Amino acid sequence: MIDLAGKKVTVVGLGRFGGGIGVTQWLCGRGAEVTVSDRASADDLAGSVAQLEGLDVKLHLGAHELDDFLEADLLVVSPAIPRDIPPLQAARDAGVPRTSEMNLFIERCPAPIVGITGSVGKSTTTSMIGDILARKYTVHVGGNIGKSLLGDLDNIAPDHIVVLELSSFQLEQAEALGVSPQVALVTNLTPNHLDRHGTMEAYSRAKQNVFRFQKPSDLLILNADDPETADWAELAPGRVDFFDPQGEAFELQVTGRHNQCNAQAAWAVGREFGIDRPTAAAALGQFQSLSHRLQLAAEGGGVKYYNDSKCTTPGGLVVALDAFDPRTAIVIAGGSDKNVSFDKMGESIARRAKGLVVMGTTADKIAAAVENSRCDAMPAVRKARDLEAAVAAAAEQASPGDVVLLSPACASYDMFKNYQERGDLFVQLARRLAGGGG
């Protein structure tokens, strides 16, 4: 760990979602000479830039400047930045060291770390684990769930516990660090981010960094029902345990069988830290849905509207659809393309959905996948020009007892800045149609 005071550090990627804000603030607090480089314009990044007001930071926005990369003592690269952009390649050839916000945190964290990854359910599971462990310990929750913990380092003690949601992009960067969390949990594995990783093998390898560098005394927890990760136990350097999604059910306020799976995973981590089942059950019984994750947005005329905008994978849509009775859900799906197959998702929609409204770049692909698996007249499939039209079309098909489910199965970037903006608009539209209910 180098002393950052006086060092020239370039933060590559501020982001509309603000992923570079926390690390920029932290670097300034340690006396680094910080430059932020982002290809997006100042107008596009206005919300993020506003949060850096008052800091001694150079903002080079609208394009990357090569000197910011070659003259830096250190590059801090956002996980969202492709590894092969020319300035990063040039810096690599010049021997400029690079790291990430997450790597900076992990190598300085004095407390044991629980790392959660997977394709579906990791945000909810991370939050459930935080709530369970908080019954006995001082807990800090962050990572890909949206909060940088760098600013909290001074308040994290060795007897605390840190719970981190870790994406495949973050774990890909962590390989250079050669460190894995003391407790690692993998919820499941389904195809995702193949536009970035290229193959399932590369995607799997990135995920495996959550346990690849564990010590013999460390623990990896796997899903007993997930065939894609069944053989990962053989790769683990440390202990291995399994959680059983079919285990004794918890009383939950959140809907869906998948949340029972998330609860079982969280309980497996709680056991490792000496939490008894009644204590875990009490925490889980109070757990509320996270925003944009199968969140009840509104209810009116006997129809419920669910915001699952965080669902950016086909597997996530299948899980969300299984939370409701067959032929009661009118699904809104579609967005930007991550080069994953919609075939299995199409089978599930054809078998279980009452209706489907598609939108965005992937609209035709999703509709075709459903048509290829159709077994009867349901679901009715419509195409909408935007989310407002999609919600209206879905509501037209809904009868009392039905649900309108925004579960896009795709990223949002063809139509929105991020999934939060997409979900927030859905909530507004749903509440308008429901007459302000919810």
Give descriptors for this structure.
globular, 438 residues, Rossmann fold, alpha/beta, UDP-N-acetylmuramoyl-L-alanine:D-glutamate ligase, six-stranded parallel β-sheet, six-stranded mixed β-sheet, Protein-Tyrosine Phosphatase, Chain A
Can you give a write-up of this model?
The protein is an alpha/beta fold and 438 residues long. It folds into 3 domains: 8-99, NAD(P)-binding Rossmann-like Domain (Rossmann fold, 3-Layer(aba) Sandwich), CATH 3.40.50.720; 102-285, UDP-N-acetylmuramoyl-L-alanine:D-glutamate ligase (3-Layer(aba) Sandwich); 295-433, Alpha-Beta Complex (Protein-Tyrosine Phosphatase, Chain A), CATH 3.90.190. The protein has helices spanning 21-29, 46-50, 66-70, 86-93, 101-108, 122-133, 168-174, 194-197, 200-208, 257-272, 277-285, 314-321, 343-352, 363-373, 387-397, 419-433, and strands at 8-12, 33-38, 57-61, 74-77, 98-99, 113-117, 139-143, 161-165, 183-186, 219-223, 239-243, 295-300, 303-307, 329-333, 355-358, 380-383, 403-406. Strand 2 (33-38), helix 2 and strand 3 form a beta-alpha-beta unit. Helix 10 (257-272) packs across helix 11 (277-285). The longest helix has 16 residues, at 257-272. The radius of gyration is 22 Å and the shape is globular. The mean pLDDT is 94.
